[in-house]
Write a structure and sequence with these properties.
single chain; 3 domains; two-stranded antiparallel sheet; 4 strands
């Protein structure tokens, strides 16, 4: 019903459904009242298969009719108890979302003691616990791997969590805060700010020069002055600003790719990226364990020797 927002759609579906059930019931009762005259030969429907196999006009067997009637009664009871008649929520007010929430609350209550003890520990201490790290890995595979990959090395537009390059900072508290509240990253289109198409190419070459990547040194020289429009976020030296989530442009780690065309596309069109908040979905105790696992991915020294 989500696609049909007008209230009349619910009424329309309710009426059609009820009429359909009553119509089927009437048809079955009409067939039930039909009697065959034993003194008259049974008529055929005119359909013949394999030369001698004919279809006769016999009424349905009583047991078959009652089976259909029982089905209709079941449908009526079901539609009274559960949603199905337009906007009617049913006597039980059941919904798949409600059942999911109830099952999640039941499971959370069951596993809460397993996670609660880690909430009292420092994230580095949690990361050194093999049992906690195994729990964190399962949480990561369930909630984070869809974007960051099962190996946590990310992909285009999704950060690699196994290196030391962080947009907002890679300390334990910041990682936990990111998972709790999510992040909204946005770079506005900068083509107008730096100039025309040639200036965009010049700035892109200057950006490449900051990390020592292959570039046109002459165009990079022209782009250095225009880069001032980008320095407010990325800094005059291009080393970024974790407070804003502005990436470091002086290394060779690229979120969307480090080719000249990709950098020009970023300058021309900007970028927008979002990570959802997990505070309501997971709760702080689970996030403590998950943050410890994520932190351990780029701090292998936190793991005890096997």
């Amino acid at each position: 019903m989500a696609d049909f927002t007008h209230s009349l759609w619910g009424t329309y579906i309710t009426i059609v459904t009820i009429i359909s059930i009553l119509g089927c019931l009437w048809l079955l009762l009409a067939l039930r009242s039909k009697k065959q005259d034993p003194n008259q030969p049974v008529k055929t429907m005119g359909h013949v298969w394999d030369e001698t196999l004919e279809e006769y006009d016999h009424p349905l067997p009583r047991w078959w009719l009652w089976l259909f009637i029982i089905t209709l009664v079941f449908a009526a009871v079901y539609l009274y108890l559960y949603p199905g008649l337009g906007t009617h929520s049913g006597a039980y007010a059941w919904s798949s979302a409600g059942q999911y929430e109830a099952e999640m609350k039941k499971m959370d209550a069951k596993v809460a003691p397993l996670f609660a003890k880690y909430l009292q520990q420092e994230i580095q201490q949690v990361a050194a616990d093999p049992a906690a790290r195994a729990m964190g890995e399962k949480l990561f595979l369930n909630y984070c791997a869809q974007c960051h990959g099962s190996d946590a090395q990310g992909s285009k537009g999704f950060p690699n969590l196994t290196d030391k390059d962080w947009l907002y900072g890679g300390d334990p508290a910041t990682i936990k805060l990111t998972i709790l509240n999510g992040r909204q990253g946005m770079m506005p289109p900068m083509a107008a700010a730096v100039g025309g198409e040639d200036d965009v190419r010049n700035v892109a070459n200057y950006v490449l020069s900051l990390s020592g990547s292959a570039h046109d040194s002459i165009k990079a020289g022209f782009g250095k002055e225009k880069f001032a429009a980008c320095a407010a976020c990325h800094g005059a030296d291009g080393k970024g600003n974790p407070a804003l989530g502005a990436p470091n442009l002086s290394d060779k780690t690229w979120l969307y790719g480090g080719s000249i065309d990709t950098i020009m596309e970023t300058i021309n069109k900007g970028r927008s990226n979002a990570m959802p908040a997990f505070k309501e979905r997971l709760g702080e105790a689970k996030i403590q364990v998950l943050a410890a696992y994520v932190w351990s991915l780029s701090n292998q020294e936190s793991k005890p020797a096997q």
